[in-house]
Write a structure and sequence with these properties.
- This is dTDP-4-dehydrorhamnose reductase.
- Keywords: NADP, Oxidoreductase.
- GO terms for molecular function: dTDP-4-dehydrorhamnose reductase activity.
- By secondary structure, the protein is α/β, with parallel strands linked by helices.
- The chain has one domain: NAD(P)-binding Rossmann-like Domain (Rossmann fold, 3-Layer(aba) Sandwich), CATH 3.40.50.
- The protein has a six-stranded parallel β-sheet with strand order 2-1-3-4-5-10, sandwiched between helices.
- Helix 2 links the parallel strand 1 and strand 2.
- Helix 2 packs across helix 8, helix 3 packs parallel to helix 5 and helix 5 runs parallel beside helix 6.
Length: 326
């Protein structure tokens, strides 16, 4: 390990990795008994690609009663509305996935980014504390500057270079410092069968005749939402606390990932051309981390196991998407 990597160890945000006592709930405070319901769950950001797979994961477990919410019925920037909904629902678990994730757009509207990603998280943390709910907050690799020559562990110093990254780090702090026992799940390069993501973009672009240019100097771990939803489920129901890095295994570049997508679809991977970030036209408003690789150190140390290698899930995902016409 180089001197630079050693210098950043131990400076990040991390709460103790301690499972809270799991409580079987038969009746919500102030409400009537609910036959057959053990745990009430509130999911914010339910319409997003991860939100859809979290709904599916919790639906497979009948002891959980999940209430999905999205911007249409829960604007997290509205403090009164957040307190009203959580106060009425009295959830046992809150999965806080809602965020403004448009990295470049955040650069142009930092006020909105901070309002949604940081202040909105404060509102959720406040209301959840009053309700006695356990919170799991989903965060991002963008809390790091991407300049390390080694993968980032949970204890590493955070140094976001974008408005998006800074606002998400603000959300982490609101949750971890504003309540006891919360969990933060950082992930990267999300993709899957739902919503907009790079796998769908690559498949759509490959329908045309043009050469596909993808950067070969940004490294990360593609993470599939169905795999991620399974690990978030385990962290949530065990009431685990602290920071977790959760990604599929296997680092790659966008160039190599694009080739893998086309190969999985039975299309010509040689159509993909490698370029550098500096060659992107037009240049992106928000800088991209050169290194987004997250080391899942806490999962490994706690014996929880790791998500599968990303190419395994990629093959299944591409098959499903191709069947839809992509």
């Amino acid at each position: 390990m180089g001197a630079e990597a050693r210098s950043r160890r131990g400076a990040g945000i991390h709460a103790p990795l301690v499972p809270r006592q799991q409580v079987v709930v038969g009746a919500a405070p102030g409400g009537p008994p609910r036959a057959g319901v053990e745990v009430r769950v509130l999911l914010t950001g339910a319409a997003g690609q991860l939100g859809v797979d979290l709904q599916r994961r919790f639906a497979s477990e009948p002891q959980h009663d999940l209430t999905p919410s999205d911007i249409g019925d829960l604007d997290v920037t509205d403090r009164d509305l957040v307190h009203q909904l959580i106060g009425e629902l009295r959830p046992d678990l809150v999965l806080h996935v809602a965020a403004w994730t448009a990295v470049d757009a955040c650069e142009g509207d930092p006020q909105r980014a901070w309002a949604v990603n940081a202040l909105g998280s404060r509102h959720v943390a406040e209301a959840s504390t009053r309700a006695g709910a356990h919170v799991v907050y989903v965060s991002t690799d963008y809390v790091f500057d991407g300049e390390s020559d080694t993968p980032y562990v949970e204890w590493d110093h955070t140094n976001p270079r974008t408005v998006y990254g800074r606002s998400k780090l603000g959300g982490e702090r609101e949750v971890l410092e504003g309540m006891v026992g919360a969990a933060v799940v950082r992930t990267s390069w999300l993709c899957g069968q739902h919503g907009s993501n790079m796998v769908k973009t690559i498949l759509e672009l490959s329908k045309g005749p043009a050469v596909l240019a993808f950067v070969d100097d940004q490294h990360g771990c593609p993470t599939f939402t169905d795999d991620l939803a399974g690990m978030i489920y385990r962290i949530a129901v065990a009431r685990m606390s602290g920071v977790f890095h959760v990604t599929n295994q296997g680092a790659t570049t966008w160039y190599q990932f694009a080739r893998d997508v086309l190969e999985a679809a039975g299309r010509d991977p040689d159509r993909v051309k490698p370029i550098t970030t500096a060659e992107l036209v037009p240049p992106r408003p928000a800088p991209r981390p050169a290194n987004s690789v997250l080391d899942n150190a806490v999962l490994r140390a706690s014996g929880m196991g790791l998500l599968p290698e990303h190419r395994e899930t990629l093959a299944r995902t591409v098959d499903a998407l191709v069947e839809t016409g992509l």
